[in-house]
Fold these 4 entries.
Entry 1:
Amino acid sequence: MITAIGPVRRALAPTVAGRSETCHVALTFDDGPDPASTPAFLDLLAVHDVRATFFVLGRLLSVNPDLASRIHGDGHELGVHGWDHMTPLVRSRRRMREEMRRTADLIELASGAAPRWYRPPFGVMSRTATLAAADVGLRPVLWTAWGRDWSSRATGPSVINAVRRQPARGGTILLHDADTASAPGSWRSTLEALPELLAGWRSEDLTVGPLRGHGGLFSLWAGP
Ligand SMILES: [Zn+2]
């Protein structure tokens, strides 16, 4: 479902792609929170003492407020992925702004903290999406590597191989903690891949954490 965005992503500024100049790897999960899958990710990340950024959908957040509170309570960061998973190409700026704000308000209600980041569904960083995010005070962040974990053909090893095609150092990793816009149950491959990915990054002396841990130039980015 995510196609043809590579050229768009490469054309964007490195900071929008989630590239920093540090030994930090930003670990991000999209499309939750889903009670069927997200708790398994939270349990695994707790075992490995790793924090991440969860780009959540307002529609799911509205029916799973306790799960959002747990994500925050476990030390993770929450970002806005939109209200539902509709592509920004079919939304007006006003509609997008309202949906981002509703989602951001739910995040603040659950966590006590206003979100900082926005990642558009399908990575479609349209001008409308960029402007709407700025209206709400959200900074767009895409990714530098992904696990292609949305596919019905994805397996633990295939997710590991896909992520490792790009250097992790200073990068932002896109994975999914829910199958909202993916093949049913595909999150299980993501979960299977995680321990080996985390071990690999540790062996490279990389620090894994949420986007807020991306220092250097990334933290100086002033917005669109
Ligand atoms: Zn998504």
Entry 2:
Amino acid sequence: MTEHCIIIGASHAAAQLISSLRQEGWEGKISLIGDEPYLPYHRPPLSKAFFVGEKTEDELLIRAAGFYDKYKVDLLLGSRVTKIDRDAKKITLENGAEISYTKLALTTGARVRKIPFTGCELPGVFYMRDLNDVKQTHEFTGRGKSAVIIGGGYIGLETAASLRKIGMSVTVIEAMSRVLQRVTAPEVSAFYTRIHTEEGVDIRTEAGVDAIVGDKHVEGVRLADGNTVHADLVIIGVGVIPNIELAEAAGLTIDNGIAVDEFATTNDADIVAAGDCTNHYNPIYQRKLRLESVQNATDQAKIAAKSICGKPEAYSALPWFWSDQYDLKLQIAGLSQGFDKVIIRGDSAQGRSFAAFYFCEGRFIAVDAINRPKEFMMSKRALTAGQNVDPLKLPDESIEVKDVFN
Ligand SMILES: Cc1cc2nc3c(=O)[nH]c(=O)nc-3n(C[C@H](O)[C@H](O)[C@H](O)COP(=O)(O)OP(=O)(O)OC[C@H]3O[C@@H](n4cnc5c(N)ncnc54)[C@H](O)[C@@H]3O)c2cc1C
């Protein structure tokens, strides 16, 4: 049988996998099957430039249509894979068609976590994951209209910034005591609360949602304290869950995501997985991680392609991430979870630029750099090399960044 690699999920990881497969010498057939009707596209602009009309749909594409011709990829878009038969080495589509593979790549990503709030089915209530979600919001946006965002994480805050940019009044409802509580230090949360407040966003923390209210369409969000916040649009951003069901039903090992080894390979040697759907061991942090980032989708896909081509290489990348809000470019290197000390360089209480360096038991583990590209770059390099940093030098801005890291 001719070699045939099927990729399930027209995703960030898939786009990378295709070019890496050909670069690594894969001469067999490649099929890309995705349930969305689109070629793989960049999701980050959905809450940013695309949301405010600064990017077109075409500009979202990770690779233009010609790329898939050039790399000889059979595209099956708008088709959902419903079953993997590992013994027969074939997959089944929702229309019943079966396709045989010799290698399979799962890049099924993640989907939004849904909370069944009363009223969540009203027109004007959206989640934010897919291009279709965002296209539908446009009917409910417009200068002078009101929006409520449920969830003060990165996506919620980015969307808040975008809605302010187009002249809407915005309220963010966060259940915890501060925004970004799960992912940043209190100083960073306080900074974003200050900036959003200065930009006109009403941020309500420790606020529970009782119900989304409205008659024919959404009209507001009733909070647990009995107050109702008016809304023409509600966006819910309360996290994602990995798409593991297909893999699970096929008997692949699941452990908070599709379990893969350092070669992005599942417990079936002919099936790899990459991106948001996976859980892998990270040697830098010496623990298992399920990451939700473009960096991981892209870097892990390169490793998966090498495995498919019989050139295994262990995955050992430093996680990094970014978030754009207003004129603020937040760049994150490393993982701050578990930190016991934070050092701030710059003034987080005023202005719009500083860096927060995270330590755990004296070891430098991560940085949040806001409009501080040098701090980000130097930290990324140090974290990748396992180099520690002198916490006493970090806050001293009279010492140049490069000298802090020497
Ligand atoms: C609004 C928004 C903003 C973001 N901003 C940032 C950012 O600033 N920086 C950053 O690093 N990351 C950001 N992210 C996260 C980033 O987009 C994800 O980490 C990335 O998309 C993960 O890529 P992936 O390859 O794992 O899969 P995904 O991009 O999730 O794609 C998976 C695809 O597989 C499809 N699929 C699933 N099951 C099947 C099936 N059975 N059959 C066929 N198709 C299937 C899905 O429908 C989907 O199209 C953002 C995400 C969103 C939604």
Entry 3:
Amino acid sequence: MNASPLEPIRPGGMTRRQFIKSVIAAGAVTSAGLLFTGPAGAGHKTSPGAVERLITLTVNGQQRRVDVLPQETLAQTLRGKLGLTGLKVGCDRAECGACTVLVDNEPLYACSTLTHSVRGKNILTVEGLARADGGLHPLQQGVLDEQGFQCGYCAPGFLMATLGYLTANPNPTRQELAHGVSGNLCRCQDYDKILTALMRGAEYMRRG
Ligand code: FES
Ligand code: FES
């Protein structure tokens, strides 16, 4: 689809729609990390003498072998070692939800989950949402159509939290969904638009 002449062009020649699409498909935000003051997630200090251990994780349907320290968080492993940078780190202390992933369909804060604790479980990140043919997941499509996010940094976490919530309650009221994603914060703070976008995505999911 051609861009509207009124649609602002982002750095790199992307329209806003193209920019948001890249964010919700793979969390491809670069400069937005500057909005957050928390550590970058992969920069934790390691204990002296700590030894990595080779383990197998199931991530987005694939078996991934990776060396993991005993105290390493899932956010560190996924972002820093497996290259899944769609997962964002905001606060790095279980407050903002930017790092939300699904573990056996349950939303979890990856910044506060030890990687060793999720061995044998199914981990889903935003990179695993798209269809096999490359098409967007219905939830992603709803967010794209409503343009609910501004910078998009929080979008991957919201998407994963919403998907986890909808697994248990596929037809929520707006208020129920608001409560379901209340563990996710947005620095740009247009929660009303975000909720509209997520409700649209939920509607697309029900349609199949
Ligand atoms: S980065 Fe904020 S909850 Fe994990
Ligand atoms: S942090 Fe910018 S859209 Fe949520």
Entry 4:
Amino acid sequence: MSDLVTRLLEGLPAEAVLTDTDVLASYAHDMASFCPAGAPAVLVLPREREQVQHVLRVASELRVPVVPQGARSGLSGAANAVDGCVLLSLVRMNRIVNIDPVNRIAVVEPGVVNADLSKAVAGHGLAYPPDPSSWEQCTIGGNIGTGAGGLCCVKYGVTAEYVLGLDVVLADGRLLSTGRSTAKGVAGYDLTRLFVGSEGTLGVVVRAVVALRPAPPPQLVLAAEFGSAAAAGDAVCRIMAAGHTPSLLELMDRTSVRAVNRLLKMGLPESTEALLLAGFDTPEPGAELAAVGELCRAAGATEVVPAEDTAESEMLLAARRAGLSALEAVKGTTMIDDVCVPRARLAELLDGVARIADRHRLTIGVIAHAGDGNTHPTVCFDATDPDESRRARESFDAIMALGLQLGGTITGEHGVGVLKREWLARELGPDSLEVQRGIKAVFDPLGILNPGKVF
Ligand SMILES: Cc1cc2nc3c(=O)[nH]c(=O)nc-3n(C[C@H](O)[C@H](O)[C@H](O)COP(=O)(O)OP(=O)(O)OC[C@H]3O[C@@H](n4cnc5c(N)ncnc54)[C@H](O)[C@@H]3O)c2cc1C
């Protein structure tokens, strides 16, 4: 038994410390393609905060890297193992500690699955809005690690806007409490916000106080078909400029629509170049749906079909949520971009992606949180074909270059991880990068926390 494992077992039960090579291999990576994963030394599955502290103390002493993990549904390699690391999976710390309807907060452990929190707070007439499409799988800790977004973020905002306070185990094992559980609070620097989206490079979240909202009425969704993705982009601009606040505004291009039909046998309209879904969760959404339908027609929609009821609306949402999995089935492997541009440039981005697909002779399906300008151009390719794999990587990079050129960012919600490290430097520039590295050094002077990620 290695010194590392012996030391870990001093503060953890044997069932929480795993070294079986098959198990380690199955935990070594998240869902991103083209991201190297190293060989971990050990997998630790703690149930208590003190056990996490013990892991970090041992790791600091022995100078062993630690990779925090949630459900490993990430799409940037941020949860991938590095050689000789401790994989620190937080999935067993999955208690909802408290739901407080008066203060509209919940206190949760990091391994709570997003959908489980949503269901639990719904029983109190409340909602936790950030809703990644992976919500039945991903954890709140992972959502905090990546700064996750989702479908209803166009109205309600992203994870960062809902994290009020955190308990974080630092690299040396100390416990840091940040933020607050009050409605307001501005004492000191906002360390809570700093941890959101830090991808496990600054500390390990062991508890979070998250804000809740009163549960809105069920939403009604309208589907509009367009003859071009750019016309759908134009409709998004018209809807937002007219002052509407949809509870979702999502786009699927023809490739995605067809892929979803194949996967779910849904009967979505296959002749459309782009399908736009607009939802409203106000008590009487009829007038808004009608107005948005008119705006879609003015932008060139060939068909506008409001869902008849909430069940039909849910079906359309299920189709949208299945988009990434459906595209994966097209050729077996995908590279999922996450470029976010100002809404006014959405049409240019969509046209540009189509040109990139042609130039590289590839299928690239686009699904998008269109109301946020956040697109997921998804390169479908056969990973066993080296030439196609090379073209896939090149097209993926070309899309990020286009996003930056249009005034956007390389990642709206999936994070940098391993996949976009070199692109981060391009987006931030040297001064910002240096400041960020300085912050990392303050929290992690030995460089043991998720090394090789982000920077
Ligand atoms: C089909 C599909 C659809 C998706 N849709 C969306 C979407 O709509 N919106 C979106 O934003 N993302 C989406 N994603 C990506 C992914 O689900 C999110 O990034 C999610 O937040 C990751 O959560 P996780 O629990 O799987 O975390 P992991 O992938 O395990 O980890 C993600 C990052 O968080 C860090 N981390 C995990 N737990 C902790 C902790 N306790 N303390 C510190 N750091 C920690 C890890 O080190 C890593 O850097 C999708 C993924 C899939 C497969």
